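Issue 218. Parser rejects a valid record. Input:
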Amino acid sequence: MRVYEALVKGLEGIGVDAAFGGAGENAAQLLLALKHSKKIRGVVTRHEQGASFMACGYAMYTDKLGVCFATAGPGAFNLFSGLAVAMTDSYPVLAISGYSALEWAGRGSLNETSGLNNTPDSQAMFAATTKKSYLLTDINDTCDVLEDAVNVAFSGRPGPVHIHVPENLTHDTLPDEKFRDIRLDVRSVEPDPREVERIAAALADALEHGRKVVALVGFGAIRAGAYSEMRKFVERFQIPVLTTLDGKGIVSESHPLSVGLFCDSGHSSAWKEFREADVVLAVGNSFSQHATFNYRDDLFTDKKLIHINISATEIDKVYKADYALVSDARLAMAALHHALDARVGDVAPVSVRTRNWETRRIPHVTGKIHPGKLAQAIGRALPPRAVLLADAGAHLAWLGYYVELEDGQNYRKPGAFGPMAGNTSGAIGLKMACPDRPVVVGCGDGCYQLSGFELMTAVEHNVPIVWVIFNDAEFKLIKLYQLSTYFESGLVEFQNPDFAAHARACGADGYTVRDIDIFEEVFRTALTSGRPTVIDAHITRWAIPHYSPSPDGVISGIVDLLEERLRDR
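Output the parser choked on:
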């Protein structure tokens, strides 16, 4: 058995059914192994970066391992962006890349990355962007290395791992007796019962004395699948739910206890609820920059913070927790419910502030589509169990603010690493992992131009995704930053091609729309077509996403900025 055949067979045994990568001489044997696999579909992408993003999408809402691969040297280096996403966003991903022959190390061979004699050091580079990177030096160790790598990817807070396969090993043969099935030994991160009791006592005391408790929920709860546990908990104890952008959908946003988004592009109802809270139960939340209004020092002043996270390194990273629980969010919420239920009697129903962002009238006078109305239209037509993905840009704020998710739907933006084209490509991996879930991508025109060529990958493999391009021919967020900071803008406007014509030339469906009513008709058609579809929606430039640099509101935020500017003069 050849080395790549052994790797593919091992991955088959743990349920992997797709692998994304690029062609190359050092990966030639892997391509053949995937060709002959009866269980794993090999997907050769137009660019290896897209493959790494697709592996992230594949792992995003499943318990499956995302797999990407590349040849040695430049192909392998193209995987780094996706591995960085997997690292920051907690996706279990395995990257496999070629490596020059070990016996030729230091000679400057083609694609050599040994770090010797003016060659790049890929071992150091992959070690810096993964939980662990391996250099396979003996073909007899293939199954041991793969098994360890996969278990590391899933252990604790999930993340990426990597295996180098040197060229010389592709000429060797793994004896049949050296192959074995891969054993997964993934242990859940369970809550410490003593900490659960401490937190339950604190919450019971707060509820008994009429102190206001809110839940602030992030992607960790989504990743853990804590939907039912979260809903039952907040309903039993009548706790209002605020979410980050990536926590959207943990509880239906039409639920009576759902208050909205707590972030700089969030809802005033959520800001007010947070300001008035005495206790904040943060679940699966990493307190990222935009979710904390640029890490405001006073965010938790006069509040008790209870922080639940699967990773111990997230606790106290940004804000000191009064109570902390290192645990999988689903297990934590079930345990906390049980402990608190024994301490608390009936809780009177609470009412939360009116949430009207989904139906709010948006004034609009220009001829092109208002991006807020576009987001509303997408939200109204989003099918059950759909996943809505956004990339980096102003569109993610419009979608997060105006799309109201129901039970079973999800929304995902780029995480802390924040690549512009991550989800434009990642959607393909997501759809292949979850073929029964509708997948819609809202992306900026700049994002789409960075990786829209992967549309050909979707066409080739018949992956039905709908890409909605927010087309205003400029980098909106960069422009707004330039204007607010330097009082001028530059090099942020560009010329777009005919995206719809390009889509049709690739074999997909393509539409150009400049009217919201036409968009709604075209969007409904695209959702039911079963084909890859690009909708080029021309939006006005004269619209700015809802934003505040302060949870105290827009006016207060502007005053804070002015005071900061004056102090800096």
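Fixed in the parser; the record now loads. The first helix runs from residue 3 to 13.
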